[in-house]
Amino acid sequence: MNEDAPLEFELHGYIDGALDDEAMARIERYLETQPQTAAKVRDYLQQKAEIRGFARTAETEASPGIEALERQLGRRLKRQTLFRWPRVAVVALLLAAGWLGHALYLPLAEDQEFTEGIVQAHILASTMPFDAATVTPERVATLFSRIGERPHVPNLDALGLQPIAAQVFPSDEGLMLHVAYRDASDTVVSLFVLHDEDSAEVRRHVLHRNGVTLVYWQHDHSRYTIAGSVADQELSAIADQLEATEQAVSPQQL
Amino acid sequence: MIDDLHAHIVSLRRYAYVLCRNGTDADDLVQETLLKAIAAADSYRPGRDLRPWLFSILHNTFLSHRRQFAKRARASTFLDTAFKDTSPPDQEHHVDAQNTIRMLSRLTPDQQAALILIAVEGLSYEEAADVLGIPVGTLMSRLARGREQLRRLVGDGCPNRLKAVR
Asked: Do A55 and B18 touch (CB under 8 A)?
């Protein structure tokens, strides 16, 4: 190549349209005087067109397996988005909703499966007879350690709620701890705790599903959801109390 | 981003098809990619471009199974080669294209990936480098070497294609 010859990389940039107009024109002037190099570039362009043409033959309908996996992945990614609201998005939503109090109501339709799992677990806890002895300190410690959280059942005595049962169950997001509380009027409120490998701060959100009110938030690695067939304000008060008891746990208790 | 998932999967299938050179293996490759993506969904950061994330999973899956895919493609490659002279004359261009695709499989997997991502998906050099987890300069080097190697391989198979430069 002579002194004005483009670098090999520039020829490929020319083929792929990755150069600016001036460089493209410079290379074209060069190719006009260098038929051998021009032929090589034509070969590159032809092989690129042939690869692209071959790929087009793949554009038939996807197999049912791929379609099913696509739906499943879509749900997982939406759920991931839902529980990892960036701080900016949360602020924007709060402003858009005219949020003034503690909670923001969101119709979380895109989180159906995960939410349904929580709602069903709460409804089961509300309708099944419980043996209060199941919530022993040893059992609680075991259950919390299974999900990777500190062994601590929040004390909701001030609201007249006593823990009546605890269980761990699998969810799409990982193992989830479910602690059911009951008050004197037999109203059951469920606390769900899930340990997230990533730390995040998610402000409190409120949603309604199948007659059950859900309040959820995340602090550090812990994701919390409270469920109950009670008014939003009552559930928010429980969430306040729960957060207060969580903050009261000193590091030595962990 | 997630709303574009279907379009990304169509792209994945095209990419897989050229890598595997047959629909069945491409289907398997995309399915395994999606299974891995579902299992790794927790590692996906909302707001991040889905396309390079999915393509990098597919690329790594292909690399881990490439010997298996190459074995499966061997029979069709043999038959294509053995009976290419029986093709009607008016399909000469089609045979050229088939020869290019056949020779493409002789490049290193990294070179194949660079050529396919640029040719089929029209990714920018930066996007393709992101998918493959390499610097842009490395991507450009693989692209240049891969194209030249492919040109020579195709030229060996079809001498007319290279007569202008020999």
From this structure: yes
- Per-residue pLDDT tens digits for B36-63: 888 888 777 777 788 888 999 999 888 8
Indicate the number of domains in chain B: 1
Looking up residue B134, the CATH number of its domain turns out to be 1.20.140.160
Intra-chain end-to-end CA distance of chain A, in Å:
72
ipTM for the predicted complex comes to: 0.73
* Nearest partner of B122 among B34, B29, B51, B61, judged by Cα: B51
* Residue of A50, A81, A198 lying closest to B101 (CB–CB): A50
Pick from B46, B96, B119: CB nearest A48: B119
Q: Do B144 and A81 touch (CB under 8 A)?
A: no
- Identify the structural domains of chain A with CATH numbers, from first to last: 8-56 (no CATH), 69-253 (3.30.200.100)
Provide, as residue numbers in chain B, all residues whose Cβ is less than 8 Å from the Cβ of A59. 10, 13-14
pLDDT > 70? residue B68: no
- Does the global pTM surpass 0.80? no
Q: What is the mean pLDDT of chain A?
A: 75
Q: Using the beta-carbon criterion (under 8 Å), do A65 and B50 form an inter-chain contact?
A: no
Range of the domain at B29: 2-162
CA distance B96 to A128: 71
Tell me which residue in A9, A35, A51 faces B115 most closely, judged by beta carbons.
Answer: A51
* Among chain B residues, CA nearest to A66: B31
Q: What are phi and psi of A206, to 5 degrees?
A: -125, 135
Taking the C-alpha atoms of residue A153 and residue A22, their distance in angstroms, rounded to an integer, is 69
